[in-house]
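Protein modeling request. Please complete all fields; requests missing the sequence field cannot be processed.
Requester role: graduate student
Desired output: 3D structure, token encoding
Chains: 1
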Amino acid sequence: MTNRWKSIGLAALLAGLTLSASYAEAAGVLTIGRREDSTTFDPIKTAQNIDNWVFSNVYDVLIRVDKTGTKLEPGLAESWTASDDGLTYTFKIRDAKFSDGSPLTAEDAAFSLLRIRDDAASLWSDSYKVIDTAVATDAHTLTIKLKNPSAPFLSTLALPNASVISKKGMESLGADAYAEKPIASGAFTVEEWRRGDRIILKKNPNFWQADRVKLDGVEWISVPDDNTRMLNVQAGELDAAIFVPFSRVEELKKDPNLNVDIDASTREDHLLINHAHGALGKKEVRQALDLAIDKKAIVDTVTFGQGTVANSYIPKGALYYFADNLQRPYDPAKAKEMLAAAGASDLTLNYLVRAGDEVDEQTAVLVQQQLQKAGITANLQKVDPSQEWDMTVAGDYDVSVNYWTNDILDPDQKTTFVLGHDSNNNYSTNYKNEAVKELVAKARLELDPKKRQEMYVDLQKMAKDDVNWIDLYYSPYINVTRKNIENFYQNPLGRFFLEDTVKN
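Delivered output (504 residues):
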């Protein structure tokens, strides 16, 4: 999913310059600096990492992704079985409670799944339409019947947005109140949310794995400026910080008080293209753009070698990644010829850039220079990060760099979101290819792994031929912690295992 700034105010900036005294002064409370504030604790209403990465430790899911990010393991469902025809799944819900002490039951699980499927505000309904019925046959048994067999179904249950919420709590409090201060099913509860500043979490004593949790609490603190956030950790004003700039990695590694954690990720950065804007609707023009961008130069200059050139929308190491997918060479002369043949010799583009984002600004300048060699003018429009994502969704751009990290093990989610349906205009690109859309739907139903892999290889080839967007690079998660912090870990899907983190 994407990670975009939504609400960064003066309070967040001031918090980044001088971190105020807080609950975090207590022993056993971990302070984490991040760029931006959350937007909601209603799991069905967000598609952003800034939300999911926090509430993954506030809520729990039926099935989890393990620390390696490669397999599923029991969560609130301690076991499950599937019928021979692949249509009926039966889950045994473990003996667990919500943070308010009320029992967590199969009815809550059914309610949560039907809500993400049916609620008009759900951003994830398409992934759960396959569910025909979800019924609590008793307090600890959930029976789900599917409309048709679905290869990614179990993986979708591990999506943080499918977290189990309290049916009684949601119905009594209402969605807005619940989204501000939820009833937790996970390791931590929301003690306080100071908008634009910090989210204060406390250990949930009713969590079914409470004995596993070593921390007394966690504070997620908004520090928008990358360099300020790093200085805060170096000064001991923060225990940890995420989104370490590529340019600071080597310097921070030399600080004897710090650990720089580089974890494998499913992050892929790409250049979005708005197919609805003039010449960008022509495949040949998009192919020319791909030829005009030197991805290796971006990796070397912007990521300081931490990244690797991307050749597919499916990240390297993920399920069904096609290593031999086409990677167009950097050839501005050929790009110029193709543009002339397509009647787009003097192409001018509006390039949307997040002001203040070091990597985004560096990439924009580099891409602008590269495109110029192919005769393409890219006008950089720097906007406040709180505006950028809304402008992208509204289609108020020609090109813009974005990134995605996988949320589930199966490629269906990302493939559907960026290639296979129309509800979000295919990730705001307005990409349309009916053959691709049909294959996305077929791949979801195919249960034979070998045949399914062949389908995803074809999808990667078709996406590259169409240039739905331009793949730029894959990169790891880079975080920094003080030496007294242990087990601060992020798995490839982005989840922080704060249940296991220790502050000495």
